[in-house]
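Q: Convert this sequence to structure tokens.
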Amino acid sequence: MPRISLPPPETMDAAQRAVYDKIVSGPRGKVQGPLRAALHNAELAEKWQALGALLRYGTTLPPRLSELAILVTGRACRSPFEWYAHRLEAEKAGIGSPVIEAILAETEPPGLSADEAAVYRYAVELNRHDSVSDATYAAALARFGERAIVELTALIGYYTMVAMTLNCHEIPLPEGVAAAFALPQQSELR
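A:
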């Protein structure tokens, strides 16, 4: 049960409905997850969806690498909804079950390509330490260049914000979907 109301389209004001319609008619095709909460502020939701669309669909990173970074971030942030949504996207992008299951178990996946390994290590370090080592940074920079490493960092930061929103407001998984892991417990937050 979410901690806040999640406005259905029929109760939205004109500004909220305009953002909702834009999202539904775009590449996402539906409003789910954190945008349901962001719609409480139409301007925030508009800017949020635009940044998300850019980072997801408009960077130099191929979907496979983006989804790998998003999965690592969803798992590191312990966000069941983000994990659920992007596991499906990762599968569509061609990421196999052994890689997905290793990320779920928080172990380095087997058989990563050099590009995938660079993204995986970068995402793990950034999530774990709030930065990356010189060696990890240099490896990613050498493989992808400056623009892509800026995009990768922004992607991981954006999906951290997504995970925090999902977790904090306890945005529910779709009906009938079981969480792959639990949200952080209140006792862990003290």
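The radius of gyration is 17 Å.
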